[in-house]
Specification:
The complex is a heterodimer of chains A (about 450) and B (about 260). Chain A has about 450 residues and is mainly alpha-helical. Helix content of chain A is about 80%, strand content about 0%. Chain A has a 3-stranded parallel sheet. By secondary structure, chain B is α/β, with parallel strands linked by helices. Chain B folds into 2 domains: about 120 residues, 2-Layer Sandwich (Protein Binding, DinI Protein, Chain A); about 110 residues, Protein Binding, DinI Protein, Chain A (2-Layer Sandwich). Chain B contains 9 helices and 8 strands. In chain B, the strands form 2 sheets. In chain B, strands 4-1-2-7 form a 4-stranded mixed sheet. Classes of the chains: A mainly alpha (about 450), B alpha/beta (about 260). Chains A and B meet through α1, β1, α3, α8 and β2 of A and α1, α3, β3, β5 and α7 of B.
């Protein structure tokens, strides 16, 4: 009876304790005594044996994000900007050249028309004046002089164009090399990550498979009742367990290293092959363009079919007092020169448009290369992020398992991942020790 | 013999009375919800699909307008489009979130929970109310808001965004971001001219070291100070835990103002 009474008293006191009393007298669970615990997950993750692998993922993601080829959504990189400015300058120079050429041609045609008309007038005014054939010969002489000047300009233009093409080729080859190397590098890195992930998974799997045995051995070792022989045996078993795991991981690692070496050789050969193909393609395209441009200029400036007839848009008008035949001759000369000038000017403008198209195509190619590389890198980043997240979740799951065991041992029924130490039981230290010893 | 047993019992009771929280059933006040499970409910998936479609359409418009825009114009455009997306999110998700919030509050109240947090920060224990909330959200009619406010909780929380807005912390963060942006540019330029993997690794190592050093110099002292302030406030207010506001779904004790004052 007395015993029951005392038990009730004790229970009453326990219940009072359980309610926690007033907030003032018992504000919170004291560290190490409450049933709510916490861990600082970030600190635990940093101590996990696979943190190195996680950090490697972060570094790879960072490195990819930093490469200039990488994806900065819709922002134009400084090099691309510079290239764009260079192309714009070339375009403006081409426009100026075209204007100058047109003005020179206009003046040339006008001069020749004036000379032809003057000659026609002289021929009509004096019986000993030049014949139509002489007028034509004089016109052709003038035209040849003009053509020689225009031809020199054409040669200069062609040389400039060749230099532009060479510079563009150089830039394209460098960009192609960069892209191919970056692609090979990403492929290699992706394989490294994949193999590392497999090694980590094996390591985790082995650690989990041996966890019960390891725990049992550790528990045995923590017993004071063990004699030296028993302790040595348990230690040996623990070491054998560690050795077995590390041997299995090392074997896989060696296999992976061989695979990576082979892959590296293949990738280098692939880059070289692709590079050779791209260089050949780029050069072939440039040679073709250069030839086309040369042909155009030759057609433009060479008097292929006899006389280069020119006229002035504001050429002389035929005096109505002149004899009808002479007046008709002058009108005809004016019409011929006008037509010839217009055809010539049309060709010059077409050439300018061709130059402009070439430059725009070059710019589009540059941008396209950049965007394609950016898309590829972006996909690689996403893939890395996914693998990083998977690894992180595996690590957290393992940490959680360790924390659960510790919580059970210490009678803590709720554990939360927290941001700052408070009155609950801090299990971080214990969990850290267990996690550190996982892969010793 | 009896005397010994009685003495032991009384002794035990005395020991326990000096550590009052030993058996305090603190755990029953903490509930949790698996937000991933809730977000798989049809109303959330439909809303997400609607937002995805809206976002994709907006992105096309953005690309078209930003392609030939300057850096400054792109930033302006980006802000404009982000605002549009945020408005749409509020419009589409606002009512659904509000309904979910009421359902969570209703379940928490019926189970006398003082705080409901996200499942991902619970490692052991707690009361899982996910299914009950799902039942309310998928049931007929709207969930009814609880009459009572949540009971006082021994779990505190801080709103990190408010802490980050404290001038000294904001200045340090801005300083670090500027430093990082410079380092990003420098490293990116070096990457361009790097020829071998070893070169790239060296650039990366130097880049990371520079960031870590700067972080330790500018941010870490403030982080340590903030953590100490949180711990101090938590102790004064008798809290067992402090978690981030982002993980709290319902209830809890907000100590942000106290922590902010302590830091100023």
């Amino acid at each position: 009876m007395k015993r029951r009474l005392l038990a009730l008293v004790a229970c009453g006191m326990l219940a009072a304790c359980a309610r926690g009393g007033s907030p003032a007298s018992a504000p919170a669970a004291s560290p190490g005594t409450g049933r709510v615990g916490y861990v600082r997950m970030d600190d635990l993750v940093k101590k996990h044996p696979l943190f190195g692998q996680l950090a490697q993922y972060d570094a790879n993601i960072q490195a990819l994000s930093l490469t200039a080829l990488v994806p900065r959504p819709l922002t134009v990189g400084p090099q691309l900007k510079a290239e764009e400015a260079r192309l714009q300058a070339q375009l403006e120079a081409a426009a100026k050249r075209t204007d100058a050429l047109l003005a020179a041609k206009g003046k040339s045609y006008q001069d020749r028309e004036n000379e032809a008309i003057a000659a026609a007038l002289r021929g009509a005014g004096a019986s000993g004046g030049p014949s139509v054939a002489a007028i034509q010969a004089q016109m052709e002489g003038t035209a040849r002089t003009q053509v020689a000047g225009a031809g020199a300009q054409a040669q200069r233009d062609l040389d400039t164009y060749r230099k532009q093409l060479e510079a563009q080729d150089g830039a394209q080859i460098t960009a192609a090399q960069h892209t191919l190397e970056a692609r090979a590098d990403r492929t290699y890195r992706a394989k490294v990550d994949e193999l590392n992930a497999k090694e980590s998974a094996l390591s985790l799997m082995l650690a989990n498979a041996d966890a019960a045995q390891r725990l049992s051995l550790r528990t045995r070792l923590s017993s004071l009742a063990l004699d030296d022989t028993q302790r040595a045996d348990a230690n040996n078993e623990l070491q054998a367990l560690d050795r077995k795991e590390s041997d299995a991981v090392a074997a896989l690692h060696n296999q992976d290293a061989q695979m990576l070496a082979t892959l590296m050789t293949q990738l280098r050969a692939g880059v070289q092959k692709d590079m050779n193909a791209q260089v050949a393609q780029i050069r072939q395209r440039s040679v073709q363009r250069y030839r086309e441009r040369g042909d155009q200029l030759r057609t433009e400036f060479a008097p292929a079919n006899g006389t280069l007839i020119a006229t002035s848009p504001s050429g002389a008008t035929a005096n109505p007092n002149l004899p009808p035949a002479l007046r008709q001759r002058i009108v005809q000369l004016h019409a011929d020169y006008t037509q010839a000038f217009q055809a010539d000017a049309k060709q010059t403008i077409a050439d300018f448009n061709k130059t402009r198209s070439d430059l725009m195509a070059r710019y589009a190619l540059l941008t396209g290369t950049d965007e394609a590389a950016a898309r590829s890198a972006q996909l690689e980043i996403q893939s890395l992020q996914k693998r990083r997240q998977d690894l992180y979740e595996q690590m957290v799951a393992q940490i959680n398992r360790e924390v659960k065991t510790i919580a059970q041992e210490r009678g803590v029924s709720t554990v939360v991942s927290t941001v700052a130490p408070a009155g609950g039981v801090d299990l971080t230290g214990d969990a850290m020790k267990d996690i550190e010893s996982l892969h010793e | 013999m009896k005397t010994n047993r009685i003495a032991a019992l009384v002794g035990l009771a005395l020991i326990l009375s000096s550590t009052p929280a030993v058996l305090a059933d603190d755990t029953t006040e903490i509930g949790y919800v698996d937000q991933a499970a809730l977000s798989a409910l049809p109303q959330f998936t439909a809303a997400r699909a609607q937002l995805d479609s809206y976002g994709a359409n907006l992105q096309k418009q953005y690309i078209a307008r930003a392609r030939n825009a300057s850096q400054a114009e792109q930033q302006k455009l980006s802000a404009e489009f982000q605002q549009q997306i945020a408005d749409k999110q509020r419009q589409v998700l606002g009512p659904i979130f509000s309904r979910a919030q009421i359902a969570i509050a209703s379940v928490a109240s019926s189970k006398n929970l003082s705080i409901v947090v996200d499942k991902q920060i619970i490692i052991v224990g707690g009361t899982d109310i996910t299914q009950a909330v799902k039942d309310l959200l998928t049931g007929v009619g709207d969930p009814v808001p609880p009459v009572n406010t949540p009971p006082p909780s021994t779990v505190g929380y801080v709103d990190q965004t408010q802490i980050d807005a404290i001038p000294a912390i904001k200045a340090a963060a801005t300083d670090f971001q500027k430093f990082k942006a410079d380092q990003d540019q420098q490293a990116a330029a070096k990457f361009r001219s790097a020829k071998t993997q070893a070169d790239r690794d060296a650039i990366m190592t130097a880049y990371q070291k520079a960031l870590t050093d700067k972080q330790n110099q500018t941010l870490k002292p403030l982080v340590d100070k903030t953590e100490a302030a949180m711990a101090s406030v938590a102790q004064k207010r008798g809290l067992t835990l402090v978690v981030d506001r982002g993980n709290v779904i319902y209830g809890g004790t907000d100590i942000t103002a106290d922590v902010t004052s302590a830091l100023k």
